[in-house]
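Researcher: I've got a protein sequence and the SMILES for zinc ion. Could you write out the 3D structure of the bound complex as structure tokens? I'd like something to compare against our soaking experiments later this week.
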Amino acid sequence: MNKKNGTMKKTIVTDGLYLYTFTDYTEKHANTVTVLVRNQAGADKQALIIDPSYPEFAEQLKTDLQTQGITPEVIVLSHYHPDHVTGCAVLSQSRIYVDEHYEYNYDNCRIWEPGYTYLRPTHLIRGGDSLSFGDDTLKFCYAPGHSRCSLITQINGKIIQVGDLLMLDVGRKNTLPYIADGGSIVEHIKSLKLIKELDPDAIIIPHGGLIDNKNRIQDLVDDRVYYLEQLLNSKGKLPLEKYLKNDISWYDNLEFHDTNMVYLL
Ligand SMILES: [Zn+2]
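Model: Sure. Here is the predicted complex with zinc ion in place.
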């Protein structure tokens, strides 16, 4: 059995902006892929894809796009981790954009999950760069913390894809922040505060989908900042409950706490 087999759900955010959410066989975790589609007069419709996730999911996405006559042209990666980038191999004709600090994780990925093909980007992004795609404009902010090469992508200013700075499980519980190899607690806090400064109308979370309620966005960010600041201030000596703004039953992936504490050493 293919471990990644699960369900595909497609939702429309705005005209030409779609989310494809793939839930894996555990039905606990999901990957949401962002797809922008543009119409070109006299040519095929083309798609820009943010975080194509795993190849098993990217295959389903590719098939769905093909049936609509849409060609994948551009891929943007929020960061270079296996669960966001390995789908690139299925969409290999596309241009691939990733943050300029990706190399460290390119090496890590081949150790963490060696069974996949890892494509190098065709274009590097620097924080502050913009990318035009038809009538849409993407603007990138460098937002490290979860990883060394994390980006926040503003889609026409109002909607932002936040990478793994925020995560929810399928049951909508808040996943604990995760500081991966090359990440940083201090940088993670700064990047979360940047989300608030950008004041988006909606956010897209690769593991969590669309949140289009401003109060909910602020609460999610504040909750994670609280945890990370408690972590820094306490030097990691308290029971887990003491780091959490809400009741412990509100959270998932509590095992991330042990990994995060390593970054205090
Ligand atoms: Zn991820």
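Model: Residues 7-262 form a domain with the Metallo-beta-lactamase; Chain A fold (CATH 3.60.15.10). The first strand starts at residue 7 and ends at 14.
Researcher: Great, I'll pass this along to the crystallography team.
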